[in-house]
Specification:
alpha/beta; eight-stranded mixed β-sheet; 17 helices; 40% helix; disordered N terminus
Length: 494
């Protein structure tokens, strides 16, 4: 095997160099192992975890092009599955064709097949709705972004494609949780490695890539500085560490970063800058206001939550920080009364901005506030995408030490907030989409309203404030926080 592996690797590298660029050492290691399994008819299965933008897709394209050329006369078939057809399968197909430029025997069929002579590569979607039964992989079966492919879908529709041929199989991707298809295959293949000593798992994290590409190392260092080393995206996408939701989105270490030492206050400090963050619940115009934590009789109803933050410039970090100084909950208050209460709070705190959940029924309240307060109102419409982005950005703020809650004062709403933080769970979906919130069944246990996350969502809206505060302070491409972090709001910029 050693005698044939070296010439094959040399041939593969020469092919890569001639068709678009040579492979880096860590890429070549993977490509040689997979190619040797295919050419030697060994039918091995591999798991390749590689940091984002480290070039795993180029390895795949080189292998596909190399094998199509090698088996053009003899014939053979490659099948590559991706979580979606558009854009992932389409992009993979275009990348392969780029490695085959200049050949006169390359043909495309039916929009998803690339042929070289008698050999072909099929690009298929692994989405739940995709009908892919019937294809066979005789050379290579690939699963791209395997952390985002449903395990049952793969086992039912794709794994049988190599059952009768003994084709080599490769799972490509980055880490997410321990329950993904990629993670499960990683564990299974690591156990096989331990038994026979044949490498099947290749892990190339940001450190390994940076050794070869210094510019990549600088880029990752910038992302770590911006988001924090413990941010789930940094851990999974660059350092290939699995994260799981069992510990919640805010485990103990992250909660500790959120706890400040400043006292709660109910009136502004002269010269300080304040903003309000509002998560809006539905209104019941016929009911009078009641204590928002007295939910025993109606535990399923959300409350409208308002968080008051002091926005402080941090000259050392060059970015604003957000210190919660007060909060308030309303349950069963009509939006007309809520509108009046919010105007009073903006006046009392001399608020420079108010971020308003303008989703659904909140849109009307946001519009009325904007008519009165103008550019100081920042409306936010919650969708799955915007909530995911808010969640990721809020975690980044917390990990960077830029969000601090007031010292625990023992109040009921303070207790409610910290319950919501501790109870907040999360799941990471396709392509990094984040689902997060408190998913317990709603009930009032005499201390907290379980199953609610109104105060947490309200606090997380500071990321919308942050985006505008930073943009308002940019100067010649650098982040410069002015003495007043929200000065841009007065200029009507937002």
């Amino acid at each position: 095997m050693v005698e044939t592996a070296i010439p094959l690797c040399d041939t593969l590298q020469e092919f890569a160099a001639a068709t678009g660029g040579a492979l880096r050492p860590y890429q070549l290691d993977v490509a040689c192992a997979v190619a040797a399994s295919v050419v030697g008819r060994r039918g091995l299965t591999f798991c390749v975890l590689m940091a984002r933008q480290a070039g795993k897709n180029e390895i795949s394209a080189v292998l596909e092009a190399f094998l199509l050329e090698r088996y053009a006369a003899e014939g053979g078939q490659i099948v590559k599955a991706s979580p979606t057809y558009v854009p992932q399968s389409v992009t993979s197909r275009l990348r392969l064709k780029g490695r085959l430029l200049g050949r006169d025997d390359v043909h495309s069929r039916a929009g998803y097949i690339v042929e070289v002579g008698q050999a072909r590569c099929l690009f298929l979607s692994a989405s739940h709705a995709a009908n892919v039964v019937g294809a066979t992989a005789s050379l290579l079966l690939e699963c791209d972004e395997a952390q985002s492919v449903d395990t049952d879908k793969w086992l039912r529709d794709f794994a049988p494609m190599a059952a009768s041929t003994g084709a080599t199989t490769v799972f490509w991707g980055t880490a997410w949780t321990s329950q993904t298809l990629l993670a499960r295959m990683r564990r299974e293949l690591a156990a096989e490695e331990a038994r026979d000593g044949v490498q099947r798992v290749f892990v190339v994290d940001a450190h390994r890539v940076a050794e070869v590409v210094p510019a990549y190392g600088r880029y990752v260092a910038e992302q770590v500085a911006r988001l924090g080393r413990d941010h789930p995206l940094i851990r999974t996408q660059y350092y290939l560490e699995e994260v799981d939701g069992e510990g919640g989105l805010f485990p103990a270490a992250r909660q500790a970063r959120m706890r400040g030492t400043h006292p709660r206050q109910h009136a502004p400090t002269p010269g300080a800058t304040y903003a309000l963050l509002l998560d809006v619940a539905g209104a019941e115009e016929s009911r009078a206001g009641i204590d928002a934590l007295e939910r025993a009789a109606n535990a399923r109803r959300d409350a409208t939550a308002c968080t008051v933050v002091e926005v402080r410039p941090d000259p050392l970090a060059g970015l604003p920080t957000y210190h919660v100084v007060d909060r308030r909950l309303w349950l069963g208050v009509g939006h007309a009364d809520l509108y009046t209460a919010l105007l009073d709070m903006m006046a009392a705190w001399q608020g420079r901005a108010i971020v308003v959940d303008a989703t659904g029924i909140g849109a009307g309240l946001a519009q009325f506030l904007a008519r009165r307060l103008g550019s100081r109102v920042i409306p936010v419409v919650f969708t799955a995408q915007t909530k995911a982005a808010i969640g990721w950005r809020f975690v980044s703020l917390v990990d960077a030490g830029r969000f601090k809650d007031y010292a625990d004062d023992g109040a009921a709403d303070t207790r409610q907030f910290w319950y919501e933080v501790a109870a907040c769970d999360y799941r990471v979906g396709l392509n990094g989409g984040l689902q997060w919130g408190v998913w317990e069944a709603p009930r009032y246990d005499g201390l907290v309203a379980r199953g609610h996350d109104d105060l947490l969502l309200s606090a997380a809206l500071c990321v919308e404030l942050d985006e505008r505060a930073i943009a308002g302070g940019r100067d010649v491409g650098d982040v410069v926080v002015p003495p007043d972090p929200l000065a841009a709001l007065d200029r009507g910029a937002y």
